[in-house]
Amino acid sequence: MSETSSHERSATPAMAPSAGSAAPVIVPMHVEDLAAADRILRLSFGTELRLPDPMQFRGDSGLVLNRFQMYPEASFVARVEGVIAGFGVASQWGRVGLIGPVCVDPAFWNRGIARALLRELVDAIDRWGCTAAGLFTNPLSPRHLRLYQSFGFWPRGLTVVLARAAAPLPRATLPWSRYRGTTSGAAAPDPTRLLAEASRFTGGICPGLDLRREMRGVIDHGHGEVLALHEAGLLTGLAICHVGAASEGGSRNLFVKYGQVAADERSAERLTDLVHACAAVARDHGAERVVLGMVTSRHAAYRHLIDMGFRSEFQGVRMHRPWGELEDGESQWVIDDWR
Ligand SMILES: CC(C)(COP(=O)(O)OP(=O)(O)OC[C@H]1O[C@@H](n2cnc3c(N)ncnc32)[C@H](O)[C@@H]1OP(=O)(O)O)[C@@H](O)C(=O)NCCC(=O)NCCS
């Protein structure tokens, strides 16, 4: 997929901007670009979704800072005559690379900027050595699908973003523990053992799937908590939760970025407990809701969450590259949405 390896890459001539406007230059993101990128995230999605005030998109949640902190080598901005016109980020879940979001200031739409960013992001994933890649996008936009298809991503299925109130939900019955950073100087639980166990646990459903960078990001930067269920000394449940202003959940929502329970005849019971633990953590942080993503082909887990009172907020299409590499099977008790 690599066309040039430059970190100062311009749009290809075929997608050159209209007459009188300069070509975008794609460069690594820097700390001083974060405010502009955050503004473009809200403005672009808010405009796409036709919000009355586009800048209200995602409320007080944040995303650009988190992703930049976790994946600085895969965070890029597009500059046009020195002005930041767009940005894109990619994430590394072990051998699985995720693209997005890719956002362009509406004043610069249809000038090939998203395409130029995507070329750089796909190269970043290839540099990580990922053997599979994915993204979440708008299923109602043929142009979004066409854009990503031209980079080898193909629609695979629906992901629904589900939410329910954090209260009233009972306590979890299985023993669970929580890992978070501390800013108060108080001792925080050491996640070293959990990180090793978690990479074996996630790799058990998809060889090489590894969310240690996500877990470290949440714990080290204080964007939420990581929850773990153990049975007979074995990890049987995991939830990477974002909560609090400027996290991906925001102050109103606890967002489960990734969750998994062991798959056997007790999976439903474990998923119930994992959600109850997430709800308890949400309440501790003053958040009202638990929000999570579910792939509809994980039918048993999807139906279980609906039975627990979760309701769909919106849906996206999951696109895979290459198409057949990753399983989203019925037997997976996994929560994620790849946003
Ligand atoms: C989608 C988006 C990133 C496209 O950015 P862009 O720089 O205008 O895109 P490009 O000029 O590189 O064009 C790429 C393709 O997207 C299409 N496109 C551009 N703006 C679009 C929009 N608002 N809606 C749908 N498609 C759009 C272009 O027509 C082009 O398709 P084509 O080559 O088949 O004609 C931009 O509209 C945006 O930021 N939207 C809000 C955020 C979003 O939806 N991001 C993608 C999901 S993560």
Commentary on this structure:
With 339 residues, the chain is an alpha+beta fold. The protein folds into two domains: 9-130, Gcn5-related N-acetyltransferase (GNAT) (Aminopeptidase, 3-Layer(aba) Sandwich); 162-336, Aminopeptidase, CATH 3.40.630. 28% of the residues lie in helices and 31% in strands. It has eight helices and 14 strands. Strands 1, 2, 3, 4, 5, 6, 7, 8, 9, 10, 11, 12, 13 and 14 form a 14-stranded mixed beta sheet that branches. Helix 7 (267-284) crosses helix 8. Bound molecules: coenzyme A (COA).
Radius of gyration from the alpha-carbon trace, in angstroms: 20 Å
One letter per element, helices H and strands E, the order comes to: EEHHEEEHEHEEHHEEEHEHEE
What is the CATH topology assignment of the largest domain?
Answer: Aminopeptidase
Question: CATH class of the largest domain, anyone?
Answer: Alpha Beta
List the helices and strands and how they pair.
Elements: E1 9-10, E2 25-28, H1 34-48, H2 64-70, E3 75-80, E4 83-93, E5 96-104, H3 113-128, E6 132-137, H4 142-149, E7 154-165, E8 176-179, H5 192-203, H6 212-221, E9 224-231, E10 234-244, E11 250-261, H7 267-284, E12 289-295, H8 299-307, E13 311-321, E14 334-336
Parallel strand pairs: 5-6, 11-12
Antiparallel strand pairs: 1-2, 2-3, 3-4, 4-5, 6-13, 7-12, 7-13, 8-9, 9-10, 10-11, 11-14
The protein binds coenzyme A (COA).
TL;DR of this structure?
With 339 residues, the chain is of the alpha+beta class. The protein is 28% helix and 31% strand.
